[in-house]
Amino acid sequence: MSAFVQSIRYEDRVLTILDQTRLPQEEHYEVITDLAQAVEAIKQLRVRGAPAISLFGGFVLVQEAYRFEAELSIYKQALLETSATLLATRPTAVNLRNVLDQLNPIIQDGTSVEEIRERLEKRTVALYDQDAQTSRQIGIHALELFQSGDRILTICNAGSIATAAYGTALAPFYIAKERGIELSVFASETRPLLQGARLTTWELQRAGIDVTLITDNMVAHTLKEKQIDAIIVGADRITRNGDTANKIGTFQLALLAQAFDIPFYVAAPLSTFDFSLVSGEAIEIEERDPQEVTAIQGVATAPAGVAVFNPAFDVTPHTLITGIITELGVITQPNEETIEQLTGLQPLG
Ligand code: MRU
Hints:
One of its GO terms (molecular function) is S-methyl-5-thioribose-1-phosphate isomerase activity. The active site is at residue 236. Substrate binds at residues 48-50, 90, 195, 246-247. Belongs to the EIF-2B alpha/beta/delta subunits family. MtnA subfamily. It is a single chain. The chain is α/β, with parallel strands linked by helices. Helices cover 40% and strands 17% of the residues. It contains 11 helices and 16 strands. It has helices at 35-43, 50-67, 72-87, 95-109, 113-143, 171-179, 195-206, 219-225, 250-260, 291-294, 336-343, and strands at residues 8-11, 14-18, 29-32, 151-155, 184-188, 211-214, 230-233, 237-239, 244-247, 264-267, 273-274, 295-296, 299-300, 313-316, 323-326, 329-332. Strands 6-5-4-7-10-15-16 form a 7-stranded mixed β-sheet, sandwiched between helices. The longest helix is centred in the middle third of the chain and has 31 residues, at 113-143. It is globular and about 65 Å long. Residues 45, 48-51, 93, 156, 158, 162-163, 167-168, 195, 234-236, 246-247, 312 line the site of 5-S-methyl-1-O-phosphono-5-thio-D-ribulose.
């Protein structure tokens, strides 16, 4: 694991994040000391990527649990309020909710402050360790879909810094590197916040993985001119039928994959599934500050006062997805039946 930059560290009860807004200029680590700072870090995307947000949220709750002491019922109430505050930070990714759904019962059922603290910490550390294993398994399964020499396009950053290690969509490239298999990555820059340009190229270049940067409007031309073999993306929420929310721009990549007759893969852990939703229609799409569109890193690129639409995610219908790669294996032609067959999870409702 040590080969990866750790975007979240929890050591001796000190919680530290790699500030992803400062990359690639600066590898700056920030110690998180209170809830307001943690909430700001999530909202500003200092910590980002669905699995990383969920693990960070877990550690923030642990930190709060050790920060104060009170009569048991008051203590529980305050911690559950912290949990609700964390959940409200960003609406689209479901992983944080899935982690808090495991941590909240520890608070509710706790019989002492000490027991709650210890159990929250133990569970969150276990989830963190498990995430690295899960991501590695995703990478191993994804690599089976590629051949040496393949050129694969991705968007945003679903890499090691968006998880505990390896990433999801980027995991196969790390496994390929370990095994001496040559794969080339094409990274779409991912306006407005440039996670592809700033983060994906940074972490892949650092790992010695072949990566080429393109702007978002170069995708169709690149698919044609560079004979791209497949597209692979991460996910923020996958509904019961396989519809997938991911970074804005993902849907148009899936449409292009169909037009060019190349496979379109989604790589995500089971913690990204939301079996309470029947289809992607019900996914809440986060809309963000218009300034992210009217400026690039603080420099205006549009006239003041212009109307802006700034959705952070879009939904790709399952019919455009060739396969969803999970830690358990690949769900080909994802739909309600194929998802249930692989996950064994009973859909809710
Ligand atoms: O707004 P972001 O940067 O948090 O969006 C992240 C993505 O869309 C990722 O693809 C997704 O969270 C998966 S990260 C393994």
